[in-house]
Design brief:
This is Helix-turn-helix domain-containing protein. The protein is mostly helical. The chain is built from 9 helices and no strands. The termini are far apart.
Length: 192
């Protein structure tokens, strides 16, 4: 019954991966810790050693996703606000999203749960900080919209591109190219 996992690594990661698989298959509410343990072929006690609740698993997934985003935000905040920096922010964010695809799918399919766990609010704050690093506050409204849309096009690309034929890496690069074009079009000439 087990399926191959992207991250063979440690037990904690395997628990996260299997939990996301089960949440995707049957929904967050209908998945129990017992089922996660069975799919992993470990005892419930072994699972409890790492996570006491399903919520703990989801929160840990968000923390793992947030770490590279927080590092990216900190890095970008210390850089000059050049177009080159903004392009690098998009490139690094695209990389972070690559590994977070299953979590984004979970967020999309379980929006009420995400809101209830308050992780939705902290994620929203990160997105506001990230878009704030791309857009210029004094820029025209259309240019601010371009920068915000660049980030959300990357999120949408995770889902919308599933129905388009092609290599996943080529699709990721195409989404990144569009996001980069949006930010480039929004850059004021004075900030080059």
């Amino acid at each position: 019954m087990g399926t191959p996992h992207a991250r063979k690594g440690n037990t904690r990661q395997r628990i996260q991966d299997v939990a996301l698989e089960l949440f995707a298959e049957q929904g967050y509410e209908k998945t129990s810790l017992r089922e996660i343990a069975e799919r992993l072929d470990v005892t419930k006690a072994a699972l409890y050693y790492h996570f006491k609740t399903k919520e703990d698993i989801v929160i840990s997934l968000f923390q793992d996703l947030a770490r590279p985003i927080d590092e990216l935000i900190d890095w970008a905040a210390a850089q000059p606000r050049t177009l080159e920096t903004k392009h690098e922010v998009l490139r690094r964010y695209s990389e972070a999203l690559r590994s977070a695809e299953p979590l984004f799918r979970f967020m999309q399919e379980n929006q009420a749960t995400v809101r209830d766990l308050s992780i939705g609010e902290t994620f929203k704050q990160r997105m506001l900080r990230l878009t704030g690093l791309l857009r210029e506050p004094e820029a025209q409204l259309t240019d601010q919209v371009r920068c915000i849309t660049a980030i959300f096009s990357m999120h949408a690309g995770l889902f919308a591109m599933q129905n388009i034929e092609g290599d996943p890496e080529d699709k990721r690069k195409a989404v990144l190219e569009v996001a980069t074009e949006l930010v480039t079009a929004a850059q004021p000439p004075s900030l080059g």
